[in-house]
Automatic annotation (TrEMBL):
Superkingdom assignment: Bacteria
Any one GO molecular-function label of the UniProt entry: metallodipeptidase activity
Name the record gives this protein: Membrane dipeptidase
Signal peptide region: 1-23
One GO-annotated biological process of the protein: proteolysis
Gene3D superfamilies associated with the record: Metal-dependent hydrolases
Originating species: Novosphingobium umbonatum
InterPro entries assigned to the protein according to its UniProt record, in alphabetical order: Metal_Hydrolase (IPR032466), Pept_M19 (IPR008257)
Keywords: Signal
SUPFAM superfamilies cross-referenced by the UniProt entry: Metallo-dependent hydrolases (SSF51556)
Pfam families, A to Z: Peptidase_M19 (PF01244)
Amino acid sequence: MRNVWLSGLSGVALLALGSPALAAPAPSPEAIAEAALKEAPVWDGHNDVPEQLRNRRKNMLAGFDFRDTTKEVGEDLWGNGNMGQASAAPRKVDPMQTDLPRLRKGKVGAQFWSVYVSANLTEQQAVQATFEQVDVMKRVIAANPADMQYCDNAACVEKAWKAGKIASLMGAEGGHSIGGSLAVLRQLYGAGVRYMTLTHFKNNSWADSGTDAPAHNGLTPFGKDVVREMQRLGMLVDLSHVSQKTMLDALDVAGAPVIFSHSNAQAISPHPRNVSDDVLDKVKANGGVVMVNFFPGYISKGQYVWNADRAGEMARQKALHPDRPDLAAAALKAWEAAHPKPVATLAEVAEHITHIAQRIGTDHIGLGSDFDGGSVGLAGLPDVSAYPALFVELAKRGMGKEDLKKIASGNILRVLKAAESYAAAHKGDAAIENPTSF
C-alpha cells in the first residue's frame, strides 16, 4: 500500500512539473475599476454646488452641513427643466447630489467647482456675482479642512491626494463673468479661477454659444485675445457650451491644450453643444481633453428629440388656445402622457466615452458630471457616489486599468500641467490690454 501511495504521488508530481503553470483568472471588471480608482481618483470637471448655494441659500452658509445635503430645502432649477428659473410651486426639499460622504464613496479626489452665474445678468452684475460664488465656495472648503483642500495648481492637487483630501479648484462658466474686460479676467485668475467656459447658453459680446443664433461667426478678434490672455495666465480655455465655429476658432488660436469641462460626442447625440468628430480630431492635435457630461438632454438622442417635440407641441397648443392657457396646459399634459420622456442611462454615457476613445484615443477623455447643475434623472448615475459604476461599465467594454486611470484624472492632470508650463514659458510676455468700456 505504501509503495502504491508513493507511486501515485510521484506521478502527480511529475505531471505538475511537466505541465505549464495554470493561468491566473482574469480580473473582473469590478476589480479593474477598483484598482484604477485606487491609483487615480476621479477628478470631475464640473459640479454646480456653488449654484445650489446661491439659489437655495442666497450664499448664506449658517446651518449648511456639507456632510449631508440630502435634506437641503429648495429645488434644482435646471434639473426640473426650468432653465435656471424658479417654478411657480417649488418643492420644499429637492435633494442635492453632492456631499462629502458621497464624494468619498464615489472615489472623487479632485473637483472643479463651477462658479456659474446666469447669462441673463448684465455684465457688471455677472462680475460681482461670479466673485460672490468664488467666495462662497472658498468658505465651504475652509469649513471642511479634514476633507477638502483648496487648490489652484497641479502640484497642490497631487499633494492633496497624498493627504487623503479632495482637491478643490474653481471654474467660471461663461465669458459674461469677465464683463468684457481682460483686467477682470486677470483678477478672476488672481482669485483662483483656473478655467473659464467661453459662453453659457447664449452668446456674449465676443463669442457664439452652441444654443443661440450665431452673431459673431465664432470668436471676435477680442474673443481671440481672451483665449490668448487666458493661456498666458495659465487659465484653462473651456469650450463646453460654445458653437462649433467658436470651438474651431479657439483651437486655431490656442498654444496650450484646451478642455471641454462637461461635453459629449455629437456623433452619439446631435445636440449642437456636443462635440463634432471634426472638432474631436483637432482636440487630439491640440492635446486637450473632453470631459464627458452626465446631463440627460445632451447624452440621449431620444431625449434630445423628445425635448424638441415637446417644445413644438407646447407652441402648437398655445397657438390653438391663446385665450385658454388652462386648455393648452391640459393638452400638453395629455401629450406627455402619450409620449413618455426617454430615460438617459449610464450605458449611453459609456457610449459617448467609447466613441471619443475610438476616434481620438483615451488620452483625451475625462469626466465632467454637471451634478447639482441639471444631471438628474440619469439611470445608473444618480449622484456623486456613483462614478465607480461607470468605471465598471467601461471595464466591461474592454478598457484596462491604465485607460481608466487616464479617464479618471490622469488626462486632466496632464492638461493642467501643460497649461502651467505654457504660462511659465510666457511669463515675460506683456499682458494683453483692452480699453475700458465706461
